[in-house]
Amino acid sequence: MKRIAVIGAGAWGTALALHAARAGASVQLWARDPSARLATGAMPRLSAYPLPDVVDVTNEWSVQADMTLVAVPMQHLASVLEQLETTSPLVLCCKGVKPESLHFPLDILAATRPSHAGAVLSGPNFAHEVAAGLPAAAVIAAREDGLARSLADTLGTPAFRLYDSTDTIGVQLGGAAKNVIAIAAGVTIGAGLGENARAALVTRGLAEISRLALALGGEPSTVSGLSGMGDLLLTCTGTSSRNFRVGRALGEGLSPKEAEAAAGGVAEGVATSQALTELALRSQVSVPVMDAVSAIVTGRADLQDVMQQLLARPLGPEIKMPPAFVR
Question: Which residues form the active site (predicted)?
Answer without folding.
Answer: 178 (proton acceptor)
